[in-house]
């Protein structure tokens, strides 16, 4: 006997209902359909992770008698250069004035509290060290609620957290809805322009996003007590030489995201003497996303409430697992 959700989905497919302001899909059926699609994607991701882990364990077993692997070779060579994270190589690019300005603005906002001046932040998830807040905002009827998340993770550094967030080599491992990632402009080792295409989740239209991403070390000494501070800032951009928006099957997403990470060490330890047991990474994640197209506001907010906490836990857990047996990277 098919479930109620399955029956609703089949009924919708027969009517060829799709996202749009004139859609006849009831909001509860729209939510059920998207939720089912996201759950299936998560199940597929967990299966891939298990298979990948089994494959890695098999490879380790096969080569352990031959040689000892050098974990340092797994770090990307450009990230080992002295000027990585300074923007030195990106400053000659025409995008640099915008990149520098947006990064500075977003860092300032990320450092602000959520209870200051009655600024409308509402707590919607509170799970141990992780707290998530949102402000309800709409533009032309589309939900673009700003999100702010605060989290604390043990055993990794700020740079490691930002490394895995920035580097596209790892993105498919933790960003479950991703279908394809293209680097459309290799500005510098610490600055890239991406075109990301996301899996279609019926009845919503397929989405893509075009944005620059910049990883930077912060040296303004504002964060008292932190051993180091790193950020990754992503911001939508459209230049004439980049793929245009809404020209094919995809609806363009517009986003501004910043991940701010601070490393704290056990008192009495420094970067030379600390082990992973001495590391604490304080995380602030802020995002404002305009999903484009059309979807019911109540559905979007319900999905965000469920999916954002899962995303942050999945990503931070992934980084911890990746770093366990590797040298510490500051």
In a few lines, what is going on in this structure?
With 330 residues, the protein is an alpha+beta fold. The chain contains six helices and eleven strands.
Distance between the termini: 55 Å
The CATH class of the largest domain, by name, is Alpha Beta
Tell me the number of structural domains: 2
Oligomer: single chain
CATH T-level fold name of the largest domain: Alpha-D-Glucose-1,6-Bisphosphate, Chain A, domain 4
Globular, elongated, flat, extended or rod-shaped: what is the shape? globular
The H/E string reads HHHEEEEEHHEEEEEEH
Q: Total strand count, please?
A: 11
Question: In terms of topology, how is this protein built?
Answer:
Layout (H helix, E strand, L loop, with lengths): L3 H12 L11 H37 L32 H16 L10 E6 L2 E5 L3 E2 L2 E2 L3 E8 L3 H9 L4 H4 L3 E11 L2 E8 L8 E12 L9 E9 L14 E15 L13 E12 L6 H27 L7
Parallel strand pairs: 8-10
Antiparallel strand pairs: 1-2, 2-5, 3-4, 5-11, 6-7, 7-8, 8-9, 9-10, 10-11
Helix pairs in contact: 1-2, 2-6, 4-6
Pfam family, one: START
Organism: Anopheles minimus
GO cellular component, one term: cytoplasm
């Amino acid at each position: 006997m098919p479930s109620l959700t399955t029956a609703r989905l089949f009924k919708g497919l027969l009517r060829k209902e799709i996202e749009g302001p004139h859609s006849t899909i009831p909001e509860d059926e729209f939510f059920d359909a998207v939720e089912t699609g996201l759950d299936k994607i998560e199940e597929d991701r967990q299966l891939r992770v298990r298979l990948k882990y089994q494959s890695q364990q098999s490879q380790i077993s096969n080569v352990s008698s031959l040689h000892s692997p050098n974990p340092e070779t797994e770090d990307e060579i450009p990230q080992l250069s002295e000027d990585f994270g300074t923007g030195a190589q990106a400053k000659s690019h025409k995008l640099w004035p915008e990149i520098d300005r947006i990064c500075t603005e977003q860092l300032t906002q990320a450092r602000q509290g959520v209870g200051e001046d009655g600024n409308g932040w509402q707590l919607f998830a509170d799970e141990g060290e992780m707290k998530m807040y949102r402000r309800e905002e709409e533009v032309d009827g589309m939900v673009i609620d700003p999100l702010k998340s605060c989290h604390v993770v043990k055993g990794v550094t700020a740079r490691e957290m930002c490394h895995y967030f920035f580097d596209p080599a790892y993105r498919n491992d933790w960003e479950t809805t991703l279908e394809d990632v293209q680097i459309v402009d290799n500005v510098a080792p610490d600055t890239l322009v991406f075109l990301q295409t996301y899996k279609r989740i019926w009845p919503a239209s397929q989405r893509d996003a075009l944005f620059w991403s910049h990883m930077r070390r912060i040296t303004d000494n504002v964060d008292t007590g932190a051993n180091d501070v790193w950020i990754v800032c992503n911001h939508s951009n459209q230049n004439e030489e980049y793929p245009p928006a809404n020209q094919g099957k995809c609806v363009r997403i517009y986003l501004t995201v910043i991940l701010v990470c601070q490393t704290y060490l056990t008192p009495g330890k420094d970067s030379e003497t600390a082990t992973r047991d001495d590391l604490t990474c304080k995380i602030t994640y802020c995002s404002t996303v305009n999903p484009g197209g059309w979807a019911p506001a109540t559905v979007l907010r319900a999905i965000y409430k469920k999916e954002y906490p899962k995303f942050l836990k999945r990503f931070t857990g992934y980084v911890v697992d990746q770093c366990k047996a590797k040298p510490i990277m500051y």
